[in-house]
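Researcher: Please predict.
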Amino acid sequence: MSHLFAHLARMKLIQRWPLMFNIRTENVQEHSLQVAMVAHALCLIKNKKFDGNLDPFKTATMAIFHDCSEVLTGDLPTPVKYFNKEIEAEYKKIEHIAEQRLLDMVPPEFREDYAELIDSQLITHEYEKLVKAADTLCAYLKCLEERKAGNHEFSTAEKRLKQSIDDNPEPAVAYFMTCFVPSFTLNLDEINRLL
């Protein structure tokens, strides 16, 4: 018997942005779906526009699992996680222990298959960069949605994330920002009118 999927099902119970006032809460499971969709798009953009050669389905699957260790650790707020290098390094160790605990739940015949999805130390750098970029983009989109709803609690996070996106050397990220992000500032009627 394996407890893996019983644990993964708890992703929906972990709220993101725990120190922030949210107009609409977001859980890790729905965030992971959005990150997977954006990571898939970034990979397609990279392949078709910028001579990339990565598997968009593998990228999306890795993104689905990118925060799965949080079913054991919870979502540590960014200001705490990155408060200083020592805390960041220790938290990475805690995440890795949680990843290994999840992998221990996988039946042996599938462990190697799940290791490349769950163990962050095994993820290829090129895939990791796209998933991290998608994660940052989705956090930025959450900030835009909150601000559009009148919540200024996310203003500082929005500026910090926008700077991180602007500093990202991956051209697929800039393309995504230009092509897809402006719609997030529109309401439903404006989006429909543009179709």
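Model: The CA atoms of residues 21 and 153 lie 6 Å apart.
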